[in-house]
Amino acid sequence: MKIPATVITGFLGAGKTTLIRHLLENANGKKIALVINEFGDLGVDREMVKGCGIAGCEDEDGNDNVIELANGCICCTVADEFLPTMEALLERDNLPDHIVIETSGLALPKPLVKAFNWPEIKTRVTVDGVVTVIDTHAVDMGRFADDEATIQKVRESDESLDHDNPLEELFEDQLQCADMVLLNKTDLVEATRLTEIKSDLQARVRDHVKFIETDHGQVDPAILLGLDAAAEDDLHHRHSHHEHDDHDDDDDHDHHHDHSHDEFESFSVSLGPIADPVDLENKLLALVDAHDILRIKGFLDVPGKPMRHVVQGVGPRFQRYFDRPWANDEPRTSQLVIIGKHGLDKTAIEEALAS
Ligand SMILES: Nc1nc2c(ncn2[C@@H]2O[C@H](COP(=O)(O)OP(=O)(O)OP(=O)(O)O)[C@@H](O)[C@H]2O)c(=O)[nH]1
């Protein structure tokens, strides 16, 4: 029997890591191997998953069950990073019951699903389902949409024109590839708006795709895992804005596609100890206002506190909390990864944070 693999996709900050933590905490003995890929080089997601103290991060043979792919975007590094990782995973004596893959928020899911047609993998693993996590709060704030009236005008003037808001295109690609859509962050959206968002998104997915509403990704793993979609056999139904020719669905080894991350960039900033995290958050908020910043995440060293302080920013929304004690052998540092649209003024941002 093939090992089922679930691909978790969704834009930056939608709640993928939160969902996966919940999934691992409620796995009920199922051996899950997690492959994480993130945009930005700090490895925050892996830390967030490992920081939860879940038993079973390592299997009996001491193999790490949380595998991080090097910085970069999984859909662009399938051949170099993802396939060797999968092959190594499949060579283990102690095979997982299920593989969960968290893509970076900027990844296109389709090239990744396509990689499951590689002969080395196809006989052993199947894509059980693509789960797309939606930040309903961000959708409510209109963050993925251009002004609808403007788009409509462009379309009316030339139907062949594809508007090219990179955020919206990614969002649509992630929706089109979904076998299940999780409307997450329901706690931040009014019920009537949620209904409207749902019916809008239902018109943008393939037929029969199920929607689940979640608060902090809390969904029974039995609903999420076991969709039995064999998505790798069904690629031609999953439209992508980023296909370069009509043969994109062939089972060939050509994984070129015209998706580039030139539209986005990320960098990390190291700060000294942060005595006043509230003051830092205010600075970050001002920076999000002034620059095209989409996502900020990282950890702070707050002097006098034994615990590490987590900072999570999604658009203008910030969350901070102490998550776990600093380990004895771990340097206490303050580091943030900042992800935004291309052209971020790194110097200005660093200066503002250093002031
Ligand atoms: N209010 C609210 N916050 C949420 C919910 N789900 C996640 N969050 C918060 O949103 C922020 C981002 O969540 P993550 O799970 O890290 O999102 P992600 O999709 O993994 O982010 P990237 O890997 O950077 O793309 C964190 O501060 C979470 O605590 C939710 O349902 N409600």
TrEMBL record:
<dbReference type="InterPro" id="IPR036627">
    <property type="entry name" value="CobW-likC_sf"/>
</dbReference>
<dbReference type="Pfam" id="PF07683">
    <property type="entry name" value="CobW_C"/>
</dbReference>
<dbReference type="GO" id="GO:0000166">
    <property type="term" value="F:nucleotide binding"/>
</dbReference>
<keyword id="KW-0143">Chaperone</keyword>
<keyword id="KW-0378">Hydrolase</keyword>
<dbReference type="InterPro" id="IPR027417">
    <property type="entry name" value="P-loop_NTPase"/>
</dbReference>
<feature type="domain" description="CobW/HypB/UreG nucleotide-binding">
    <location>
        <begin position="4"/>
        <end position="211"/>
    </location>
</feature>
<feature type="region of interest" description="Disordered">
    <location>
        <begin position="236"/>
        <end position="263"/>
    </location>
</feature>
<dbReference type="InterPro" id="IPR012824">
    <property type="entry name" value="CobW"/>
</dbReference>
<dbReference type="InterPro" id="IPR011629">
    <property type="entry name" value="CobW-like_C"/>
</dbReference>
<dbReference type="GO" id="GO:0016787">
    <property type="term" value="F:hydrolase activity"/>
</dbReference>
<comment type="function">
    <text>Zinc chaperone that directly transfers zinc cofactor to target proteins, thereby activating them. Zinc is transferred from the CXCC motif in the GTPase domain to the zinc binding site in target proteins in a process requiring GTP hydrolysis.</text>
</comment>
<comment type="similarity">
    <text>Belongs to the SIMIBI class G3E GTPase family. ZNG1 subfamily.</text>
</comment>
<keyword id="KW-0547">Nucleotide-binding</keyword>
<dbReference type="GO" id="GO:0005737">
    <property type="term" value="C:cytoplasm"/>
</dbReference>
<dbReference type="InterPro" id="IPR051316">
    <property type="entry name" value="Zinc-reg_GTPase_activator"/>
</dbReference>
<feature type="domain" description="CobW C-terminal">
    <location>
        <begin position="282"/>
        <end position="354"/>
    </location>
</feature>
<feature type="compositionally biased region" description="Basic and acidic residues">
    <location>
        <begin position="253"/>
        <end position="263"/>
    </location>
</feature>
<dbReference type="Pfam" id="PF02492">
    <property type="entry name" value="cobW"/>
</dbReference>
<dbReference type="InterPro" id="IPR003495">
    <property type="entry name" value="CobW/HypB/UreG_nucleotide-bd"/>
</dbReference>
<protein>
    <submittedName>
        <fullName>Cobalamin biosynthesis protein CobW</fullName>
    </submittedName>
</protein>
<dbReference type="GO" id="GO:0009236">
    <property type="term" value="P:cobalamin biosynthetic process"/>
</dbReference>
